[in-house]
Specification:
Layout (H helix, E strand, L loop, with lengths): L3 E2 L5 E9 L5 E8 L2 H15 L10 H10 L7 H13 L14 H11 L5 H17 L6 H4 L15 H8 L5 H9 L4 H6 L11 E4 L2 E5 L2 E5 L9 E4 L2 H9 L14 H14 L8 H12 L4 H8 L16 H26 L4
Antiparallel strand pairs: 1-2, 2-3, 4-7, 5-6
Helix pairs in contact: 1-2, 2-3, 2-5, 7-14, 8-12, 12-13
Length: about 350
């Protein structure tokens, strides 16, 4: 690695860092007042992202970043962002260790240090990412089975009752996106990704088939969902259908919910906070599951509506539900929401 002297008298080292989405070469420049300083900065960058580094000399940090980079166009932006956060904030005591010299006990020590401040879930995610990064470099340590994790700290969160949420959102710009999340169990990225073209011609169903993800200040539209089971077609209640169609729009390609991510996420949290509730937009999916469970809706149908791919959330084995049963369950759900909304509208002094 060589440094060149610039007209300003500083030294510069350039490092090839791959190609962008258009196939154009990406070159990073590192400048310092001394030749050694420029070389050191370039060397640290190459180590951090494992650029041109032999696997035997690759650090844990480099291996993880290499693994992330190899999946930037495959995994969702949210997942990539969470991976980068793990690399920056967890298991920091081993990040500079060479993977060729890494031992299970080193990983266990790092997890033990983090256990003072992080949950079992956070630590499990870190171990899983590290294990995948090592396997990508053909190092098989089988960490998932060999690393001891702390006991899960039981967290009990009090969810606001359905009518309290309805009272906050009814008649506001939050009503439609919140009902989509709470009535149809859509994630915020799914809510913001819906288009008028996703509604079936008869207006009775809506396809959930894309995400509009907020990523570092920019909206990214992905024509896939978080998981395969997240791509689904749900029945569309008449109340929500009328709200959607009452909005002005120019074409079927328009997004149904125009609110920005921050306006929606922070706006809902702020309005709920005024009523004394610490509630996030994602909590609406929990309200959905809890409400349907209280209605006696079978867990397998709740799971299907919510697009959950495993039984870890619903605590049941997914089984097929017949169309006839779906209609019965959906009618029960729609009638319950409609009755709560009717009360809220009467209290607000307005009609539908």
């Amino acid at each position: 690695m060589k440094a060149s002297k610039t007209p300003s008298g500083k030294y510069r080292v350039q490092v090839y860092a791959g190609v962008d989405e258009n196939g154009k070469r990406i070159v990073r420049s590192f400048m310092a007042s001394t030749e050694e300083g420029a070389i050191l900065a370039a060397y640290e960058f190459k180590q951090k992202y494992a650029i041109g580094v032999d696997p035997m000399d690759m650090t844990v940090e480099g291996a993880i970043n290499k693994y992330i980079e190899s999946r930037t166009n495959i995994l969702s932006p949210t997942t990539i962002r969470s991976y980068r956060l793990i690399c920056r904030t967890r298991m920091q005591s081993i990040m500079k260790c060479k993977i060729s010299k890494l031992r299970v006990i080193d990983v266990q020590d790092a997890i033990n240090q983090d256990a003072m401040r992080l949950s079992k879930k956070s630590l499990k995610e870190a171990v899983s990412l590290l294990n995948s990064a090592l396997m990508a470099q053909e190092i098989y340590m089988h960490l998932r089975k060999r690393i001891a994790l702390p006991q899960q700290r039981k967290k009990i969160k009090e969810l606001p009752p359905l009518n309290a949420i309805i009272d906050v959102i009814v008649g506001t710009e939050l009503e439609l996106p919140c009902l989509l999340a709470m009535w149809l169990s859509l994630r915020i990225a799914e809510v913001r990704g819906l288009k008028y073209s996703d509604i079936t011609p008869d207006g009775k169903r809506i396809r959930v088939q894309r995400e509009r993800v907020y990523n570092y200040g920019t909206d990214l539209v992905r024509e896939v969902n978080k998981t395969e089971d997240s791509t689904r077609t749900n029945m569309l209640p008449e109340y929500i259908y009328k709200m959607i169609m009452a909005q002005p729009h120019n074409s079927d390609d328009d997004f149904i919910v125009q609110m920005g991510y921050n306006g929606l996420y922070k706006g809902f949290k702020r309005e709920m906070g005024k009523r004394g509730y610490k509630t996030t937009f994602h909590d609406l999916r929990h309200v959905f599951a809890t409400t349907l469970n209280d209605l006696g809706i079978p867990p397998n149908y709740i799971q299907k509506l919510g697009g959950w791919s495993t039984d870890n959330v619903m605590k049941t084995v997914y089984t097929h539900t017949t169309s006839e049963k779906e209609q019965e369950y959906q009618s029960r759900i729609d009638n319950m929401f409609a009755s709560v909304l009717e009360v809220a509208h009467r209290s607000d002094g307005g009609g539908e």
